[in-house]
Amino acid sequence: MNKKLGTFILFLLLSSTAVAEYRVYQYYVRAKDPMPQDKDAYLVTSSLNPTSYIRYHGGDQSIEIELLRSWMCKGHTGEFKKYCSAPYDSISAPNIAN
Fold first, then answer.
1. 25 exposed, middle or buried (CB, 10 Å; 0-12, 13-18, 19+)?
2. pTM to 2 decimal places
């Protein structure tokens, strides 16, 4: 009985320290057979991986994507929360004087 209680308490302690993370992808999306409303390519940020994104949006017969970049975010993605910003956005170019 005491061993089961100890295992249960250990399980509770370990489960409360779990941290979720997810990957964010940024794509350049083009329609393969552009209709008037889809004639221009557009930039998309999604948590769907490339294969899932293409399949979810009609398959490779309807769209083509170009993966531009991806990054990891920590935390929960539910309740329509915004994705974390890309780490590249916070990098500033060095000021180089001539």
1. buried
2. 0.68
